[in-house]
Design brief:
Elements lengths: L8 H9 L4 H13 L5 H8 L3 H11 L13 H8 L4 H13 L11 H22 L3 H10 L2 H11 L16 H9 L3 H11 L4 H9 L11 H15 L15 H7 L4 H18 L5
Length: 285
């Protein structure tokens, strides 16, 4: 079969490595924050590796979401303002803005839509993890980084398309088949490969690899079921990706039942995530 924009896993990973470093630093930041011996100076040293990300963190610390009192002008002041435990959320949000800067030409996704989708997934995952007793920070990260495979694939394929040519329209009825026909690989496989290479743990990269659930030869891990549910709910709330809408129609109810998320608990998760989303979405612009 002729694949018009063939992309290998390694090619996509190489493209992802050229994306601003914000998302890649989250793996190291998570480890630092989990280490009782680390301190704010260690965190600041890590974040200073990316000057643009540092500027974004300071800007976000001065936003209506995080601002308390007079404006801050330095990374150290920004970290003090939000507190050691809230640093991860601040950096994750700044990295989403820092990383998602271009529309996805092949997937037909605008920057604003992709940022809001990633944030909603992260918040839903965080809430689901809280109910299930899972690691909320890992879950939040899996949601935030779920679109990474699409970003890497789209950017890699854009290198091969002729100037002025139209990218093929996504097949919303079979997005997985469309990815294989157009790129020779699926976005969840690419996302998992990239995140594993960035040293994220299996709870994140395996969840991204298997979260579409349909057609898996093995039972998905809990985090993959959680991510499937989050994607389905984000879509219902108007923050899904049109190209994936058909993926959440079959398995979401079963995944909720398998995790013990009855209607009452599920409604609570959704309400909490949407409240947080409305408070935070202003920082995505």
């Amino acid at each position: 079969m002729d694949v018009p924009f063939l992309v290998s896993l390694d090619e996509a990973a190489a493209v992802a490595d050229g994306i601003p470093a914000g998302h890649r630093l989250l793996a190291e930041l998570r480890e630092l924050l989990a280490d009782a011996n680390s301190n704010p100076e260690d965190v600041a040293g890590l974040l200073r590796r990316d000057g643009a990300l540092t500027a974004g963190i300071v800007r976000m610390a001065n936003s209506v979401v995080f601002r308390r009192g007079s404006p801050v002008g330095t990374l150290d002041d920004a970290l003090i303002r939000v507190g050691f435990q809230q640093v991860y959320e601040l950096v994750a949000l700044a990295s989403a803005v820092h990383t998602i800067k271009e529309p996805l030409r092949f997937y037909r996704i605008a920057v604003k839509n992709l940022r809001e989708h990633a944030l909603m997934l992260a918040l839903l995952m965080e809430q689901i993890a809280g109910l299930l007793g899972s690691d909320a920070r890992l879950a939040y990260t899996a949601g935030l980084l779920c679109p990474m495979g699409k970003i890497a694939l789209d950017l890699a394929a854009q290198r091969a398309i002729r100037p002025g040519a139209e990218a093929p329209v996504p097949d919303e009825s079979d997005i997985i088949g469309w990815e294989r026909r157009v790129f020779g690989v699926t976005s969840n496989a690419v996302g998992a490969h990239v995140l594993k290479s960035w040293r994220f743990p299996p709870e994140i990269f395996v969840a991204v690899r298997d979260h579409r659930i349909g057609g898996l030869a093995i039972d998905p891990i809990q985090e993959a079921r959680m991510l499937h549910i989050a994607c389905a709910q984000a879509d219902s709330a108007g923050f899904g990706l049109p190209c994936e809408r058909g993926l959440w129609l079959t398995h979401a109810a079963k995944a909720r039942a398998e995790l013990g998320l009855d209607e009452e608990r599920h409604s609570f998760v959704v309400a909490q995530a949407q409240t947080r989303f409305e408070a935070l979405r202003v920082v995505l612009d």
